[in-house]
What does this fold into?
Amino acid sequence: MPRAVLTKMLRETPFYGAVAFFLVLAAFPFYWMVITSFKTNPDLYNVTHVPFWFNDPPTLEHFRYLFDKTLFTTWLLNSLIIGLCVTGITLVTAVPAGYSLARMTGRQGEALGIGIFLTYLVPPTLLFLPLSRVVAGLGLKNSMWSLVVIYPTFTIPFCTWLLMGFFKALPVEIEEAAIVDGCSLFGAFVKMAIPLSLPGILTVVIFTFTLTLQEFVYALTFISASDQKPITLGVATDLIRGDIFYWGEIMAGALIASIPVAIAYNLFLDRFISGITGGAVK
Amino acid sequence: MVAIADSVPKPTARFRFILDRRDVFGSLMVAPAILYVLLLVGVPLLMAVYYSLSAYTIYNPSWRFVGLSNFIDIVNNPVFRQTLYNTFIFTFGSQILGLVLGKFGALLLLRPFPGRKLVRALIILPWAVPIALATVAWEWMFDSLYSVINWTLIALGIVTRSNAPNWLGTPHLAMLCVIVVNAWRFFPFAIVIFLAGITAIPQDVLDAATIDGAGFWRRNYQIIMPMILPIVAVGLIFGFVFTFTDLSIVFLMTMGGPVGATSVLGFAGFQTGINSGDVSHGAAISLFMLPVLLVVVVAMLRFIRRREI
It folds into this structure.
């Protein structure tokens, strides 16, 4: 029945057209990153060339320049160190806090949890002035360690909230059984609650790391020395000489920094959403 | 339940027995997190308030109290009033655009079709990727000379090269650009929030409504929308707060220009407080965000709570 197939296809056209519109809208800037980072400069800066594909053969020139002639590898390393340290601080504080809030009886735990979470909504643009004085006072001005100290201010509230949800989903009876069998409260937490909520903790690790990669305002405020910048700040502000934007290099750097975050988000998105909306839908 | 652990009396004051008291143990576990947040969010917030009431600059760090004079200064400054106005335009423009896109995107992704997972993964990108990096990509797309958007418009014969729009160099267009970029960053989040809400609705409720004769729009607006409102409210808090206080998009794309046309509160606070070193006026500008944020957050929380009961 070719006729039926045809009408069916026609009926589906608006739907797939709309899907295509959303795809182009969301993904085109990234396609643009990819194509810019592999184009030769003469191809990039020629308005008569069709910009959507390669008119000259693709090149790795921009990537080579990025790794050899700029501080890109330093920025990558800085971001890695910052991410690891912040994740460490966050886990040490947020895991016990989330557990404790989840096990508190009555409305007290809930209220305290919401209180902590609300601090996540205090914006960096409100805090950066006093915090820059705090950072200067600690002698960390222009140092990436300032970010290690400051980033937990938003990762701890966020992760405490997420972990509170994960621990709440864990049956109390398991820990109680451990306590009856002679475990201390702390022992029950370490030997029972933590191993059982490892997936939740892994989610928190991933999101702490991506949150530190995404942050821009504090890094911009505290750090102006090129070799101390994290990758996001370095790529966005340090590949411009005077008025000249090194677009190929900028896009190549943005691409490299974006890929791990994009993958992490897609893998852990559902947990993330159930975490932040956990208070609203029970 | 909880009483099991408490039923064994532990009267001795030795350390490990204190640790076995549930209330002490709980407080000790939560204390580091609360201390960290109090010290580095609570105290700075109070400092910001005090800065805004003092004559503090980084060149002359005095704590002299000057009352509300900083606020009077900035309110009397027409540039600041423009900034305040811009902030609202920027926030409402991009939130509305983002929500509309999000709602339609969610409706599309609700239906199973081949490749839906991949489509969803690609549509999430704008929200996942660090906004500073995505903004730089947009800046390159809006480039005054090599804009791919202008190239397309010229190729389609809509404009000529001589009168092609200078996206970031014209006040209204620049505002449009930062709104579009922010809506673009926000709409995948809106899609995900809508999807989470809609998939949480029990299918039997929808089936019952269908059997009772509710059509697509009626189901949409009288069943689905009211049921997902709490979850959408949470999404809105996030979107609103992060847009209203945003700095990076404006900083990277337009630097508040041309002539202050896209300057928003976060950016103005940064320019005055950090770049010019006038901490007290910068803090006063930033603090203008606080009452708006408080109103929004309190209203949303009350709303969520009322719906829960």
In short: The longest helix of chain A spans residues 2-37.
